[in-house]
Each structure stands twice: as structure tokens, then as C-alpha cells.
TrEMBL record:
Gene name of the encoded protein: LOC106174186
Cofactor: heme
Catalytic activity: 24,25-dihydrolanosterol + reduced [NADPH--hemoprotein reductase] + O2 = 32-hydroxy-24,25-dihydrolanosterol + oxidized [NADPH--hemoprotein reductase] + H2O + H(+); 32-hydroxylanosterol + reduced [NADPH--hemoprotein reductase] + O2 = 32-oxolanosterol + oxidized [NADPH--hemoprotein reductase] + 2 H2O + H(+); a 14alpha-hydroxymethyl steroid + reduced [NADPH--hemoprotein reductase] + O2 = a 14alpha-formyl steroid + oxidized [NADPH--hemoprotein reductase] + 2 H2O + H(+); a 14alpha-methyl steroid + reduced [NADPH--hemoprotein reductase] + O2 = a 14alpha-hydroxymethyl steroid + oxidized [NADPH--hemoprotein reductase] + H2O + H(+)
Record GO terms (molecular function): heme binding; iron ion binding; sterol 14-demethylase activity
GO biological process, one term: steroid metabolic process
Protein name: Lanosterol 14-alpha demethylase
InterPro entries: CYP450_sterol_14alpha_dmase (IPR050529), Cyt_P450 (IPR001128), Cyt_P450_CS (IPR017972), Cyt_P450_E_grp-IV (IPR002403), Cyt_P450_sf (IPR036396)
Amino acid sequence: MAVIFHLLNSVDHSSVLLLVSCLLLAGIQLLQRYSFSSWKQFFFTRRKNQLPPFISASLPFFGHAFAYGKNPKEFLLNAYRKYGPAFRFTMMGKTFTFLVGPEASREFYYSPNDQLNGEEMNSKITTPILGKDTAYDVPHSVMLEQFRLIRKSGLTRNRMEEYASVIEDEVTQYLEEKWGETGSIDILHTFRELCVRCGPKCLLGTDVTKAVNLDLYHDLISGFHPLVMTIPSFMQSAVFYKRDRANAKIRKIFQEIINKRREEPTREDDTLQRLMESKNKHGQPLTDTELIGIMTALMTLGTEEPSITSTWFGLFLAKHQDVQEQIYQEQMEDASGLDYKVLEKYPALERGLKETLRLRPPAFTFIRKCRKDKDVLDYTLTPGTMTCISIIVNQTLPEIWGEDAEDFKPDRFIDFGNNPRQQASYTPFGAGTHKCLGPNFAMLEMKTIWATILRKYKLELPSERFPVEDRTTLFLIPDDKKVIYKKR
Ligand code: HEM
């Protein structure tokens, strides 16, 4: 202290003022650079290793929101090149930690839920759509039990054996009703129409498919929007009124279906009936609120992600006529009726879908909240850290996928089995603690739909331009969805 006073005494007042101003400015810069939660983490948490590097921003509060919003993939790739596999940055007053590459992402996927927690962030999106008491609205152990009942009721090998022919019939009927010799379609709309007929019919029952129309479905999924994460809860119902209105209508419709089934003496043997009759590990049946939530989850998940993947796949096929021709020839070599074996058959079709899921995974960024210290490579994530990964970045890293990483080349999957780093970076259905419940169903649904369409129709793009990603939505959808079909 004495030394400081001595130093201060030995300089004139204007120099002191200058020094104090500089210190103040530096202090303000530091405060802006680290959000409140970072400071809290810095001072109050036990740290084995250091926090991941922080990418400073010149704009307070907004931070990197504009750069990230404009092109998240480019932003994350640049950051990865400069700062390595873990880094932090601020957007809209919140600090996010991103993990990039297979090694860091593995830590994300395989962390137990009480360390990197899924429900705290995800429930903001899913609960208003699915309703209370389901999925991320309940403790993880209850959610796992609900998933076990779904698997047992609708996703066993026996159940899945029935689905391919149901889907093939639906698609054939749809094409007869809606498509002629040639025409132009909004391919996302087409696939939502198709999948909302196929998914819920297999995963729930015919009465559910009949009761839900596409407009209601559209309104419900308008809640899959990035703004859900930032708009304060008291303003949500004003902004997302369509979502909430659709949710209320769907709950009413599903409750009526459940009541009607209970009153009817004859019983369907479908997934919904099995769910209604199932008991959890404590011997309790699912409550009506849980049942309705599960029905809504199966309806939306069985529809939205397969529709978006199929949309991009259709666009890629329309652009890459050689790939489309190869898949068509494969179908002509075995044009038998479609059944469960569709999952093992048609390798060219499968490679095309896998390549689509690599380049355009419908769900491309995941988030968890750190609840206990978590070591990741040389760093420690501390409680409160919002931790994210971007599978679209992992699935296109040139050092793993080659210089042609951005090109649509389904044949790269011929050698996939011999490349452990590519395997570790390819997670379109997630992995570990929160791995997707429905990869087999989704592949069965998409392969059956596409085999049925491509046996009869050829697709083309209306112009040279290939659509780019629409960055305003939570799922990765194209900005232009027009495709031309022609009867073969
Ligand atoms: C192309 C189709 C699909 C894709 C690309 C996909 C992708 C994903 C991904 C990446 C996750 C992990 C999310 C995370 O880690 O936070 C996930 C989770 C999930 N998926 Fe899928 N999915 C698809 C279809 C389906 C279908 C058809 C169902 C239902 C039958 C389903 C049910 C679920 C459920 C319940 C979870 C939550 C798992 C958890 O948090 O523990 N998905 N999906």
C-alpha cells in the first residue's frame, strides 16, 4: 500500500487522473467481457482446470448474436480453428460454451443427466407443445420410464414389422389422390402431409391420424422456434398464441379418443391401446395427461424430423440426377412389396439418406445445463454453464470428412465402417444419455416412403439455384422448397 501511495505522490495530478481513467476503462471492458454468470463461476466454484477460452465481443449484451445468427456454422468453425475444441462466447447477455469435434462432443453425449442436464433447457421448447407431465417436464428417471413404455408398445421388432406395408399403402393412396403425370410441389408441405398420415398411424392408431389435420399440426409446431428460448415467459402466450391454441385443441381431441376407446367394448391392437394398458415399474398406468403428452410427442417427432430430412433428400436427388438414377435402378432390381426388410435392403437409398442427415441434420444444435463440475479435455465446465454442441459442424469438419466435406456424395458411406473418427463425428440421431428413441422407425418410414415414390416418379429442380438453409427456424429447413415431379 505504502509503495502505491509513494508512487502516486511522485507523479502529478493529471497523470493520476489518466491512470485512474485507464483503470476504470479496463474494469468496464472486463465486466462487459464476462457475463455475471461467468464472474460467479470464476469466484465461487471449485476449478480443477481452467474455463474454456472466451471470445470477446465489442458489443455489450448482444455479444456475438449477429455473427452467430447470420451463419452459425461459419462462426463456430472459425472459432474452432482459432480457439480449439472448447470455447465460450456471449449472446443476448448469456454465455454459451460450445464443444466441437468428436472428443469434446463425446463428453457432452455421455455425461449423466445430473451432470449435463437436458430437461432444464429443452423443456422451454417441448413442454408448451407436448403439455405437462411428459418428456422434459418430468424428472429424468420418469422420462426414461415413459420412453421404455413407448419402446415396448410401439417400437419392438414385432410392431415395426407391420409398419412398412401401412406406410406403402398410405403413400400409394396419397400419390393417386394428389399427384398426376407432372407437377410442381412444395416438397416440405408434401412430406409433412405424408408423414402426418404415416407416422401417427403406425405409432398411435388410425383414429388419431383421422382426427389431426395439417393446419392444426402446423400451428402446434410453430412453437419449435428459437425465440422460445429468449422471450420471457409472461410474453410467450402472446407471441406463440397459435401454438397454445393448437395444444389446447389437440389435448381435447386426444382426450376424446382416449375416452371413446375406454367406452368401446372392442379393442384396437395398436400402439395407443398398448400404451393405455401399460403399467410403469411401480405398477401404475400412465395418467391421461402423460398419455396425451406421449401421443403429441409421437405425432410431432414421428412427423417433423423425417419430413425435413426427406425434404432435403428430395432436393439433393433433384439436383444429383446420377444418384437418383442409381437409387431408381436399385429399386427396379427389387421392386417387391415393402416390409421390415426395407431396413436391411436398398444400400444406395440408405447411403443417400445418411448423407442427407450428415449435411442437413434437422436438429443441428443441442444444449444442456451443467449442474456439477464437468471436465472436458483440458477444461472444467462449472455449474450453470450452458453447454452446446453443433452436429452440423462435427459432420462437416474437413479434417475428418475431407476437402469435399460440403459436397453431397452418398458413396462416402461405403467406407464409413473403416473410419472410427467419422463414426464418432456422425450423430444425426444424437448419442449416449439422450440418444434418439426412433432412428429405426425414422429410417423405416423414410426408406419406405422414398422407395414407393421413386419407383413411380422422377424429381427435378425448377431452376439452377439450390436452396440454402433458412436460419430463422429451430430446425434446419430450406429457404425454397419447390420441386418438379414427372411420372416415369
Ligand atoms: C429423421 C428423424 C429423426 C432425427 C434426425 C432425430 C434426431 C434426434 C436427435 C439428434 C436427438 C438427440 C437430442 C439431444 O441430444 O438433445 C433426438 C432425441 C429424441 N428423439 Fe429423435 N430424431 C428423429 C426421429 C424421431 C422419431 C421418429 C422419434 C419417435 C419415435 C424420435 C424420438 C426422440 C426422443 C423421444 C428423443 C429424446 C431423447 C432424450 O432426450 O433422452 N425421434 N432425436
